[in-house]
Amino acid sequence: MPRIPVKRASDGGPVLKLFYRIAGKRYGAVPEPTAVVAHHRGLLRTTIAHEMMAEKASKHLPANVRELAVYRVATRIGCSWCVDFGTMLQRHDGLDIDRLKHIDEYETSPLFTRQERLALALADAMSGPTVTVTDEQIAELVAEFGEKGVVELTYQIGLENSRARMNSALGIVDQGFTSGDACRVPIP
């Protein structure tokens, strides 16, 4: 249970009820981080707008590269909610979720491509207690993905760091997106 309880739809107005209905249809359940943020209407609106805009704008990188990097951040920070939700999103994108069990071995595992390894290494460098990204690392990423791709990748990694750290601080844990009722959501 989160350290701050989720805001129930019955405690909100018509806009919150509509959002909860849309989220329920899209994900099979209302994401708990959003239901906790719902206690602050301004930040809820900001979060929804930001997440939708970031999702829409982040189309330069291949989905597997972007999603694996975001997933890696979740595992590094230890956000079980993000791991759960991220696994569901990857499954819905048609990505291979079985290899996620081997994410810690990405540097040597044949299950990961060169592009994925580069992105995962950046996620590691950005998600520890201190940022350890090097000039050489960014140069290699630019050569692989271009400047636009590197900006998108670092943005998504930074965004997931924010999500994962907030969820962890608020005690938001896995919600069952990969094993519960939310898995019954039809894959788009």
Describe, in plain words, how this protein is organized in 3D.
The protein is mainly α and 188 residues long. The protein folds into 2 domains: 9-57 and 178-184, no CATH class; 63-169, AhpD-like. It is built from 7 helices and no strands. The chain has helices at 14-27, 32-37, 41-57, 63-77, 80-92, 114-126, 135-169. The chain starts with 13 loop residues before the first helix and ends in a 19-residue tail after the last helix. 31% of the residues are buried. Residues 181-188 have low confidence and may be disordered.
Key terms:
188 residues, mainly alpha, AhpD-like, 0% strand, disordered C terminus
Q: Radius of gyration, Cα only, in angstroms? A: 17 Å
Instruction: Please give the share of residues in helix.
Output: 55-70%
CATH class division of the largest domain: Mainly Alpha
Number of domains: 2
* Ends distance: 29 Å
Q: What is the N-to-C succession of helices and strands?
A: HHHHHHH
Catalogue the unreliable spans: 181-188
- Cα shape: globular
**Mean pLDDT, as a whole number?**
93
Domain Carboxymuconolactone decarboxylase-like: 53-124
InterPro entries: AhpD-like, CMD-like
Pfam family, one: CMD
Protein name: AhpD family alkylhydroperoxidase
